[in-house]
Amino acid sequence: MTTLCLLHRVVKYNCKCLSGLLAVPRYKSESIRTMATSGTIVALDDAKSFMVRCMKSVGTKEEHAVSLAEVLLAGDYRGHFSHGLNRLDMYVHDVQTKICCSDKEPIVLKEFAATAHVDGNNLLGPVVGNFCMDLAIQKAKEAGIGWVVAKGSNHFGIAGWYSLRASNQGFLGMAFTNTSPLVVPTRAKKPTLGTNPISVAAPAKNADSFVLDMATSTCAVGKIEIQSRKGQPIPSGWGVDAEGKEVHESEKVLHGGGLLPLGGTEVSSGYKGYGLAMMVEVFCGLLAGAAYGPNIRKWMNTTVEADLGQCFVAINPDAFAPGFPERMSDLMNICRTLEPADGESEVLVAGDPERQHMAKCEEQGGIAYHPNQITHMHELAKKLGVEPMKVKA
Question: CB-based burial of residue 160 (10 Å sphere; 0-12 exposed, 13-18 middle, 19+ buried)?
């Protein structure tokens, strides 16, 4: 399988705390953030405890296993099934093969009043991410801002988990990470940059929040594989072939091609997404001294360490003009109350689709997983010798 094909095989802390968490663009059909309206229901606590059992069975420390489970659970709870339970076996494999460490802790290499450089010691991404954002928050409390970068990290789940970790305490939060090279820069032919996500979360009144969590590519590769399985063409701006030419045939993107930056081709401003992806590399790989660009291991390659670079920022709004939450609420409500265009039901802001999904989960008593996902988890449980995940009848 190609690197891109492999990506589809792996697709934001108790229930109350989860209700603050992320947003990506809306799609009218087969969104990666699918509303949980059908499938097998699993209570949140049961999903979390299952993930903890699996990780502990391969030697992960309990506190590290919990950190991972909370992030994966949040991904599913918020409707981002590509970054939830579906990735569990990837993390199991990483610890099992010892390509990812489970017996260390992150360490601070260099520190100033408002900044820190951290070595993640090749630990699970959520362990590194929580450590760094908590450090950034502490610095923001003392200095007004905290900016922490890490090297030696791994895949950390949804970026919004970390930005929300700050906004849930009244701070503005930002999180960035570089990733395996899947995106072809403008005018190029070779995948060189990652989908390099950006997340910004800002607190508003009445527990409301603005939560942006987006990739710097036009779409996730999983969307392209969906079109491939359906035998349907992909929209303009999604991908290129091995010659760097925009194509509508998914197979040409999956086999030798790559993803286009956010915006698509140059004529539709894809160079802006390319620039954003480079900005993430500046904050992450370059500033932290981690792997960057094409030097990052290929996706799902478990023969070398990932050495991802990540960046976490917390800002105390009280260091600036008073009344930030009120203004944040006002701006969001201005947008929400705009008259919808013909054919649209409502105008949303970043974070609203996820809140709708979480409300649906609460209504149905848990997260709705596809039956195939449940079957796969039962097989994983049997393989690891742990108690299967409980499901609701």
Answer: buried
At 242, is the pLDDT very low, low, confident or very high (cuts 50, 70, 90)? Answer: very high
Q: Look-up: residue for tokens 């093969």? A: 97
Global pTM reads: 0.88
Amino acid at 75: G
**pLDDT tens-digit series, residues 162-197:** 999 999 999 999 999 999 999 999 999 999 999 999
Average pLDDT over residues 352-369: 95
Q: What does the buried/exposed string (b/e) look like for 14-43 if buried means 16 or more CB atoms within 10 Å of the residue's CB? A: ebeebbbbbbbeeeeeeebbbebeebbbbb
End-to-end CA distance of the chain: 37
Q: What is the chain's alpha carbon radius of gyration, rounded to the nearest angstrom?
A: 20
Helices (H), the chain: 3-7, 15-18, 44-57, 62-77, 88-96, 125-143, 160-167, 221-230, 250-254, 270-281, 287-288, 324-336, 352-364, 371-384
Report how far residue 24's alpha carbon sits from residue 10's, in angstroms, rounded to the nearest whole number: 19
Give the DSSP letter of residue 285. Answer: I
Position 8 pLDDT exceeds 80: no
Res 2: pLDDT = 40
Q: 88-96 and 371-384 are packed helices; what angle lies between their axes, rounded to 10 degrees?
A: 20
Measured between alpha carbons, how far is 70 from 238 in angstroms, rounded to an integer? 31
> 268-307 burial by CB neighbour count: b if 16+ within 10 A, else e?
ebbbebbbbbbebbebbbbbbbbbbbeebbbbeeeeebbb
pLDDT in the model for residue 26: 33
